[in-house]
Amino acid sequence: MTAPLTPPPPPHQPPSDDAHVWQAPPAGGAAGTVGYEQDGPGMKIEVRDAAVVTVAMLLAGVLLGVLWWWLAPHVPLIADDSAVYLKDTEGEQAIGVDGTFTLLALAFGAVSAVVVFLVRRRGGVPLVVALAVGGLLGSLLAWRIGIWLGPTQNVVAHAKQVGKGVTFSAPLKLGAKGALLAWSLAGLVVHLGLTALFGPRDPDPYASPYGAPNPPQPPTA
Q1: What pLDDT, in 10s, does the model give residues 155-206?
Q2: What's the burial of 206, exposed, middle or buried (CB within 10 Å: 0-12/13-18/19+)?
Q3: By C-alpha distance, which of 126, 122, 110 is closest to 53?
Q4: Mean pLDDT of the chain
Q5: CA–CA separation, 134 and 187 (whole Å)
Q6: Tell me: the pLDDT tens digits for 67-95?
Q7: Which residues contact 16 (CB under 8 A, 6 or more apart)?
């Protein structure tokens, strides 16, 4: 009498569609380069946007210059037969002129940063450079426009024109040249803060593409 033969193993069945089979993520984690779209709009587009931002800020410098000329306090002068003097030697009008320009430039820098962030949230180095360069160019243009719109720079001729003992306004000038950097600094600081708080985040390179952490890998020998 012979022993019964062992039945052959069943044929290999391919896994069904409903089976959950774990697969290793692509190299580099969830942010692999295969099949993914290019990160960012591209250097050419960023440079083009940066040029537009720079030109827009330069044109906004015209508005800054007009506001500075309009809002800055007037420094009163008075002349006699020999010289021109400050009418109020203890006045703070000259400091107010610098302070007005600085406050306006800070406000322009904050608004510029907000607009740039809303238009291009991803940011980029060209946009940051545009904020710095555009703010400086806009401040320089505003400074020159304010001087051009203000009283004449020829104080002696102006004193002779108004007559002896008559009060007239001094030329509009910026004593603290560091105020020319206020627009750029405000724009950079506000843009950096907005990007840190509300900017897009890079994907976690260690995250699993299936929404769960990758299983720990055994140590290699």
Answers
A1: 878 878 877 878 888 889 898 999 999 999 999 999 999 998 887 776 656 6
A2: exposed
A3: 126
A4: 79
A5: 10
A6: 999 999 988 888 876 778 777 776 788 89
A7: none
User: Which residues fall within 8 angstroms of residue 186, CB to CB, at 6 or more apart?
Assistant: 105, 106, 107, 108, 109, 110, 113, 135
Task: Kindly report the number of other CB atoms within 10 A of residue 17's CB atom.
Answer: 5
Give pTM, 2 decimals. Answer: 0.71
Give me the count of residues in the chain.
221
User: Rounded to whole angstroms, how far apart are CA atoms 74 and 208?
Assistant: 66
Structure token pair of residue 116: 């740039």
CA gap 197, 112 in Å, rounded: 17
d(CA 83, CA 211): 81
Q: Fill in the amino acid letter for 207.
A: A
Contact call for residues 188 and 114 (beta carbons, < 8 A)? no
Per residue in 46-73, pLDDT tens?
889 899 999 999 999 999 999 999 999 9
Joined together, the tokens standing for residue 83 give 């010289």
